[in-house]
Amino acid sequence: MAKISDRVRGLTAGMGDGWGVYHRARALKAQGVAITDLTIGEHDIRTDPAILDAMQASARGGHTGYAALAGTGDLRDAIAARVTERTGMRTTRENVLVTPGGQAALFSALMGVMDPGAEVALPDPYYATYPGTVRAAGGVPVPVPTRPEDGFQPRAEALSAAIGDRSAALMVNSPNNPTGAVYGAETMDGIAEVAQRHDLWLISDEVYDTQLWSGGHLSARALPGMADRTLVVGSMSKSHAMTGSRIGWLVGPPAMIADLVVLATHTTYGVAGFVQDAALHALRLGPEFEARIAAPFRRRRAACLELLGQAARIRAHPSAGAMYLMLDIRATGLSATAFAERLLDERRIAVMPGESFGQAAAGHVRVALTLPDDALLNAFDSMLSFAEEIMA
Fold first, then answer.
1. Domains of the chain: total
2. Which residue, 95, 172, 231, 346, could crosslink 109 as a Cys pair with Cβ 3.0–4.6 Å?
3. Are residues 122 and 255 in the same domain?
4. Do 360 and 376 sit in the same domain of this protein?
5. In the structure, what pLDDT confidence band is assigned to residue 390 with cuts at 50, 70 and 90?
6. Is residue 1 one of the residues assigned to a domain?
7. Does residue 18 sit in helix, strand or coil?
């Protein structure tokens, strides 16, 4: 067989993709084993029927050919209006590129800010795909550890210390997956100061901006002096339960967006028109609809934190946003991977080991709050009793 490229072979740098427990849980389910799956951020509801009706009507109405590469004008306008309203930062369609999901927006942003071999600093813990996406775009990821005792807030001095001659960008995520941290004003000001002092691009993944449980969301692009050096990743997946529709966006300076439309011509060739029309319909449902999609996770977070307050071996970091809880399991004496593997084997509960998201998350597991309330609380009860048993 001809040689497979070093770039593809090297996406995970020989460290695995972080999804081992997830893949093993899926394999067990395929064999008919009953698994309680708390690994991924997939809503336990499906996309709202009204959105699917709009998608079907658009497809049957003929919007099945090539769609505008940057996104339809109406959808770009709607995204721009939403961003303006939520951040206070004036945004027009020229600032918006519609993409096949937030992951494609992230890849596009990295392609736009880096030359081959450039470095991208990213706070650790990070979403599991970040380092591989940086490598896929030809760059070098530089993890910057954050600390549990700081609530996983990145420190400006640590970010600055990670910047070198080949640094091109910082990449941040708030509300954060996996930790649930929401970056406050001091953190965001520090990130902006580092980006400006070192003349870096800032890529800000804000796909969880509707899932806020305490505090407020600060968009990096709205900070003083940051509009011309910030690219914001957005998505319909989390806010509207449209994960499978694969539609997101990138917001940034018009010149960058124009160049990334050229990139789209040579990669994705845009997003299906009927999916774009469904997204437009979804956005027009307004913030009340988005709040309804987020409400179960707010409720489940509170219930799980109450239950965890009685636990001796597992401690929760009280997430301020996103659909996860990061649990400190160090008191069990097991590594996060060993804990997750045994939990799957002995209780048939699947969670993500913290090491899937970087070394700063060692000793932690991430739990997705993506089951109906009773089933989720039963799973937490079982996990807590498991932690007690292994210490007995």
1. 2
2. 231
3. yes
4. yes
5. confident
6. no
7. coil
Q: Spell out a b/e string for 228-239, using b for 16 or more CB atoms within 10 Å of the CB, else e.
A: ebbbbbbbbbbb
Name which of 113, 76, 66, 112 is nearest 263 in CA terms: 112
Instruction: Note whether 31 and 162 are same-domain residues.
Output: no
pLDDT at 17 exceeding the cut of 80: no
Task: Kindly report the CATH number assigned to the domain that includes residue 374.
Answer: 3.90.1150.10
Give the pLDDT score at 93: 98
CATH code of the domain containing 260: 3.40.640.10
Residue 188 has pLDDT above 80, yes or no: yes
Are the C-beta atoms of 109 and 203 separated by less than 8 Å? yes
Reported as a single tens digit per residue, the pLDDT across 309-356 is 988 889 998 899 999 999 999 999 999 999 999 999 999 999 999 999
Quick: pLDDT tens for 143-176.
999 999 999 999 999 999 999 999 999 999 999 9
CA atoms within 13 A on the CB side of 392: 7
Rounded to an integer, what distance in angstroms lies between the CA atom of residue 315 and that of residue 125? 17
Q: What pLDDT, on a 0 to 100 scale, did the predictor assign at position 310?
A: 86
Tell which residue, 217, 233, 241, 204, has the closest CA to residue 98. Answer: 233
Instruction: Determine the Cα–Cα distance for residues 292 and 290; give it in Å rounded to an integer.
Output: 5
3-state secondary structure of 332: helix
Q: What are 317's strand-pairing partners?
A: 326
Residue 161 falls inside a structural domain: yes
Parent domain of 38: 6-46+288-391
pLDDT band (50, 70, 90) for residue 47: very high
pLDDT band (50, 70, 90) for residue 392: low
124/102 same-domain check:
yes
Secondary structure in 3-state letters for 37-51 = ECCCCCCCCCCCHHH
The residue written with tokens 């956005």 in the block is 283
Give the model's pLDDT for residue 15.
67
How many whole angstroms separate alpha carbon 76 and alpha carbon 89?
Answer: 15
The CA distance from 172 to 146, in Å, is: 12
